[in-house]
Design a protein that fits this description.
This protein is mostly helical. The protein folds into 3 domains: 78 residues, Four Helix Bundle (Hemerythrin (Met), subunit A), CATH 1.20.120; 39 residues; 38 residues. Helices cover 79% and strands 0% of the residues. The radius of gyration is 22 Å and the shape is extended. The termini are far apart.
């Protein structure tokens, strides 16, 4: 019961902040609501015992990409009046997309109700028994076991790209 309450709490936060992110006119407010959406999604991942994805969600998306978004928003001069004229005619396109999405969800619920033994999609209970291995442990075993060579090649390529970017930036200065 508590799992459902926690899931619906994070889901409500994620959906409402995503809706607020799309509807805000101020780009900084939209970025803050995007951060809230990403944090709520990370909370859902933690509740599902996906610790590795939870940490990646916070460190990579909330920490890294959102800082990049905030810097871009601060550096770029956003003229709201110019963008309002450009996007004024897309309300009908948005309405068509919303209606198509609603029709797809309706068809999914209608066909799922006709399946045997299932009332709502994806609500089948997990089998009771032993717990699966930890998510971070499984990722570490595959990353440092099966995929060790590709992981090391990717890390060397990223190091070379970082050194190249620093060298190119120093030549311009």
């Amino acid at each position: 019961m508590l799992d459902k309450v926690i899931f619906y709490f994070f889901a409500a936060i994620a959906v409402s902040s995503a809706a607020l992110m799309v509807t805000r006119r101020n780009a900084v407010h939209s970025a803050i609501f995007l951060i809230t959406t990403l944090l709520a999604t990370a909370g859902i991942f933690l509740q599902l015992r996906a610790e590795f994805i939870f940490i990646v969600q916070i460190i990579l998306y909330v920490g890294g990409i959102m800082v990049l978004f905030i810097f871009v928003i601060m550096l770029v001069n956003l003229d709201v009046a110019l963008h309002q004229l450009k996007f004024a005619r897309q309300k009908w396109v948005a309405l068509v997309v919303v209606l198509a999405l609603a029709a797809q969800v309706g068809v999914m619920f209608w066909t799922t109700g006709k399946m045997q033994g299932q009332v709502w999609p994806g609500l089948n209970a997990a089998p009771v028994g032993k717990l699966p291995p930890g998510n971070a442990e499984a990722v570490a075993q595959s990353l440092f076991g099966t995929y060790l060579l590709p992981f090391e090649i990717a890390s060397v390529l990223l190091l070379v790209a970082m050194i190249g970017a620093v060298v190119m930036a120093k030549k311009r200065a």
